[in-house]
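Note on ligand handling. Small-molecule inputs were canonicalized before submission; formal charges were left as drawn, and no protonation-state enumeration was performed. Where a ligand contained multiple stereocentres, the stereochemistry in the source SMILES was retained. For S-adenosylmethionine, this procedure yielded the string shown in the input block below.
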Amino acid sequence: MNDENYFKIILNVLSRNLGINMQYYDKKYLKRRITSRMNYLGIDSFEEYYKYLVRNSSEVYELINFIAINYTEFFRDKEVFDYIYKNIFPMIFKNKEVKILSAGCSTGQEVYSIAMLIYEYLDKDINKYTILIVGGDIDREALNYASHGIYREDEMKNIDDRFIKKYFIKINSKYKIRDEVKRIVSFKYMDLTSEIKDSEIYDMVLCRNVIIYIDQKYKKIIFENLYKMLKDGGYLIIGKSESLPINLKDKFEVISLENKIYRKR
Ligand SMILES: C[S@@+](CC[C@H](N)C(=O)[O-])C[C@H]1O[C@@H](n2cnc3c(N)ncnc32)[C@H](O)[C@@H]1O
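Structure output:
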């Protein structure tokens, strides 16, 4: 068997452990990350690395972390959240009913970051609004983690102390998001690479650090889904190192190029 076949076998091991089909992911990206992990371990063939994976049961988790498929954090790229707070919230909260989607939400930190900011923004007026923030992902395990809303100390590093006191309850060494914040949040399975039959349409859709990992041929359908799920005039926010396909540039107005925020025309 040639070494390329071992690369495919390693992807199968990842698919089985993640419960996600790795065919959606950008193979070049995966190859770069796996090779980099192999270099770190002093291994120079996929065959040898596959054998190492089989011998060391924790390695598959090390690899998943290394590939960063699920990596997320609270207030990731804080300046984007500052921009949303100052410039997007005043627009979307002109309406009393607001729906927001975090597509590819992983373990939920982006969803709760937005929820806390909404509490800050609306303050006592929050009860005058009907708000729903949906977190969608293909990773059911990540969604399960997200729905518990319980985070380890090391996951809390980006959050202001004031926010931690106000929006979390400390339980032993962990932090649980308060029920009032959870009340406006819900999580569900969502595969952005297949046609989405979500009847909801959203005022703002965040899809950050998802398409960067996705194989070129699935990107088109992802953007079609994102476009469809947005209200006219709704806001799309992608990751800071991602870009909008050229063919969509006339369907979206640029709101902040720096923060990758667009508005559906
Ligand atoms: C790196 S995380 C990004 C999390 C968060 N949006 C952020 O920026 O911190 C990427 C997430 O996208 C999810 N994902 C990948 N392909 C997807 C798909 N086809 N549909 C929905 N989610 C997907 C992964 O499961 C993972 O949880």
